[in-house]
Specification:
alpha+beta; five-stranded mixed β-sheet; 19 helices; 16 strands
Length: about 500
């Protein structure tokens, strides 16, 4: 921690001025006396990443602190998040690459990686303690043709949960659900037993929106694969499985018994949240980190409202939850800007150091004594507005998983529960085997074809089609290109796993 004191004290006065007023600019010169004191001079590099509200500045105190700690001179290039995809395409077309560029796993990005313009970093990760400590599944979810190219900004792999009204559960004398049957019983009771005590039949056990946002949780409970599954060496879509049909039948039951809002096909995401805040909703799918916000929303109507979460329920095929990609973008390192293996290692060292406790604290907490304090080894924000002003332009620069490397914080019970649940969920999370596979047909018209299935799901739940009608929709999907997608994914899967 001696490094932290040295580096942070150099800039604490300047940062305070920057928080209260505006930065005084100044030189970005670096004497190389940070963590790489044995280096002759700072490493020169350029970084391109996006921002949400305010662009980062090369001469800011935050950048000086990062440069000081990592022994670098950094040229920051940034674009608004709304134009980041376009900027990536322009950069690829021009060939004028920065040292590293932040982007997302999208078709143009994958295609650019395949052309060989970025370094493969997988073979080097073992030499960097922070980078090698990232969950291997996160890297697997970013692979292109089986190889690792990106340094990720990590987020939890399995964050989804069912957030429900704990005060309603307690009032009705029900246990916390552990199985899909107990979950149904809770939803039914929330609908029929007047949990809000107003004497009216006006509550819903589960609320849904027009995107069927709860669906992935329900299909996982019944044991359906995560978007795609593997059977006898072949890739099949989740919606073609028996487990998926059982989940649809469960959903139809919820609709028929008016356990879910009857207007869900036209309920927008915004109105979905408004329905929760109205105090008429018992359960909705969320990510674990939003539990505090959902509790505050419910308390707008009922000050005594409490929420709890449940993610893992035992279904007919065991207990499972779907894995997500596990990243919020990643940095690719350009071969044209980083010409030698020696320089590549310096860039990887830079990203590895960004994950040290000192840098993680900077991105997660800010500056000790100004935006947070530490008591008994626990950090706590003292000036969140100052922190946001100070760090918001630079949040996309952070890599790794900040909360794992930063000083532990003072957490509310629901916040601690979220962290615990994320780890528990991750242990049983099902990955999507087709997430990084190539299918030209899927790229060209996968989204269009999926509308056939999405429309059929709604019709089945509403009772407008039966099992035969559902099968007809699946057959149409196959005929219009779905079978070709299956074949292409299967070929790609077998190529990667041979």
């Amino acid at each position: 921690m001696k490094k932290k004191g040295k580096v942070f004290s150099l800039l604490s006065t300047a940062l305070l001025v920057g928080v209260v007023g505006c930065s005084n600019g100044g030189s970005t010169a670096n004497e190389g006396n940070g963590t790489n004191a044995d280096s002759d001079k700072p490493f020169e590099m350029s970084l391109l990443f996006h921002y949400e509200t305010e662009p980062p500045k090369n001469d800011s105190d935050i950048m000086k602190m990062i440069e000081e700690y990592t022994n670098t001179n950094i040229d920051v290039q940034s674009v608004p998040s709304s134009t980041s995809a376009e900027k990536f395409n322009v950069t690829v077309a021009s060939g004028n690459f920065p040292t590293a560029i932040k982007t997302f796993y999208e078709v143009p990005v994958v295609n650019a990686i395949k052309t060989g313009v970025f370094w493969e970093i997988g073979p080097y990760l073992k030499d960097y303690p922070n980078l090698s400590a990232i969950n291997p599944q996160v890297y697997d979810n970013m692979k292109v043709q089986g190889k690792i190219y990106g340094v990720p900004s990590v987020r939890d792999l399995a964050r989804n949960t069912m957030t429900y009204r704990k005060d309603w559960l307690e009032k009705l004398g029900l246990p916390e659900p552990t199985t899909i049957d107990e979950f149904y019983n809770m939803l039914k009771a929330f609908t029929t037993q007047d949990p809000d005590g107003n004497g009216k039949d006006d509550t819903y056990g589960l609320i849904e929106n027009n995107a069927l946002f709860n669906m992935d949780m329900i299909t996982a409970y019944f044991g359906a694969p995560n978007q795609w599954g593997v059977e006898d060496g072949k890739l099949i879509p989740s919606f073609q499985t028996e487990a998926y049909m059982e989940a649809l039948q469960f959903y139809r039951k919820l609709f028929d018994e008016k356990i879910i809002n009857q207007d869900f096909p036209i309920t927008s995401r915004d109105n979905w949240f408004k329905l929760w805040d109205s105090g008429k909703a018992g359960t909705m799918r969320q990510v674990t980190s939003t539990a505090v916000a959902r509790e505050r929303g419910a308390q707008k109507v009922d000050p005594n409202a409490k929420v709890d979460m449940v993610s893992l329920l035992e279904g007919p095929r065991g207990t499972a939850i779907y894995s997500e990609a596990g990243n919020n973008g990643f940095f690719l390192i350009s071969k044209s800007a980083v010409k030698t293996e020696e320089d590549l290692k310096k860039v990887l060292e830079f990203f590895d150091k960004l994950m040290d406790e000192e840098m993680s604290n900077l991105f997660y907490w800010g500056l000790e004594g100004q935006t947070y304090t530490v008591t008994d080894g626990k950090a706590q924000h003292t000036d969140k507005e100052a922190f946001d002003r100070m760090l918001s332009p630079y949040t996309q620069l952070a890599v790794g998983k900040l909360i794992d490397n930063a000083t532990p914080g003072v957490l509310q019970p629901l916040e601690q529960q979220a962290l615990d649940m994320n780890k528990e969920n991750e242990a049983v999370a099902l990955a999507n085997p087709a997430l990084t596979l190539d299918s030209e047909t899927n790229t060209e018209k996968g989204a269009q074809l999926m509308k056939i299935i999405e429309d059929a799901r709604i019709k089945f739940i509403l009772g407008e089609i039966d099992e035969a009608g559902w099968q007809a929709a699946v057959d149409q999907w196959k005929k219009d290109g779905g079978q070709q997608i299956m074949d292409e994914f299967t070929a790609a899967y077998n190529e990667v796993n041979k």
